[in-house]
Amino acid sequence: MTGAPQRQHYGLTFAVLALAGISYSLLQSLVAPALPVIQRDLHTSTTDVTWVFTVFLLSASVATPIAGRLGDMFGKERTLLFVLGILAVGTLVSALANSIALLVVGRVIQGTGGAIFPLAFGIIRDEFPPRQVASGIGFMSALLGVGGGAGIVLAGPIVQHLSYHWLFWLPLVPILASIVATHLFVPESPLKPGGRVNWSGAWLLTAWLVTLLIATSEGPTWGWTDARVIGLYLLSLVLVVIWVMVESRAREPLVDMAMMRLRGVWTTNLAATLLGFGMYSSFITIPQFVEAPAGAGYGFNASVTQAGLFLVPSTLGMLAVSPLAGRIAHSVGSRVALMAGALLTMICFILLSAAHTERWEIYLASAFLGAGIGLAFAALANLIVEAVPPGQTGVATGMNTIMRTIGGAVGGQVVASIISASLEASGVPAERGFTIGFAIAAGALFVSFLSAFAVPRKPAAGVGATAEPVPAGSGA
């Protein structure tokens, strides 16, 4: 096609996107095991230091669908560059922070990087050959879990041998490299439908997410029956209703409610919520369990660094099975991969609740967790992409990411509350608290499996994988 821009080879494009994705996903979880160290070094309270983790989730939840919509409208490569630039600024602020207030500000800015994944899914859909789209999206999606697991593993050695500042200095290097590589090697979107952002919908989305996640995050501290927690949940519910009404009537909604009602979308989003519940629960329960001191009657008296090693099989499992999701999608469909992933993750928590006296039992459960999350996360993105038209890829996958985040926030706090409620006179949680937490996570994963079973067997005619856009310059 004369005058058409030369498209970059999709393999190089994917390498750049993967570097950006893993940089962000590391930042998501690196701080979690280091919160006690940050609390001590910044002379702050337990309540205040948890905001270092919470505000990141809040910011990511708000920014993800908005940036995804901007990418669909005005170009994904341009929007990705902007998001990476903001992520770099937030990481620099966090690295330089010597007060809890400045660190929280840095983490708010960092959370914008959550939009990397829906933008990357859209770029893959635009640039990859049709038969490579499922594999590319699957592996990219799994990087969110891989980076999360790797962050838990790496946090201990970093804070033990360096300081919490290096939790941000080290990821800043690949972020800056991603900015340069994106500018040089990622082509601009061939599809730009244009339009505008429905800012009233964006503000309402922000409001109900903030109230929901603050209530969930503060529930263990304030008490689940506290008037403030109940009030925030009720306010969030009211705001959700208003948001749906505003978006349903908008000429150009931020999130198309008709799209959200598609069976292939809402069932996948429900599965994503419950899978997030399970993954974030594991980030809290497994390290705390293995770090239990001698004399607790359980656990292995592990250090922060040693606790991270128990999740190494999980990270390796995600890397091993993620590429298989694309092959499964081509042979029997992503729905099967999602069902298998939910079952494997459920088996992890069943094993943990029933057998956790030997180290090898924790390692085995961790391997099941990684394999399950790797398959399921890869399938989630593919199922969403299959269910919506190309012009809605960014916002649809962004909402799916939000549902994972909400599930993770709820799961992490619910399990943390159960463990805290089981404290004995010694100040150490009782073993039954962990057992109940594991069992609840297993139940959530069973419901996730049922949700996956309800996903349509094939995408609706005329959209998704059957309607892959032809990249510009292909000669078609």
CATH superfamily of the largest domain: MFS general substrate transporter like domains
Count structural domains: 2
- CATH architecture verdict of the largest domain: Up-down Bundle
Number of helices: 18
Low-confidence stretches: 1-5, 459-476
Q: Report the sheet-strand fraction.
A: under 5%
Let me know the largest β-sheet. Answer: none
Radius of gyration: 21 Å
Q: What is the fold-level CATH name, i.e. the topology of the largest domain?
A: Growth Hormone, Chain: A
Describe the structure.
With 476 residues, the protein is an all-alpha fold. It has two domains: 402 residues, Growth Hormone, Chain: A (Up-down Bundle); 55 residues, no CATH class. 76% of the residues lie in helices and 0% in strands. α4 packs antiparallel against α5 and α7 crosses α16. The radius of gyration is 21 Å and the shape is globular. The N terminus and C terminus are likely disordered.
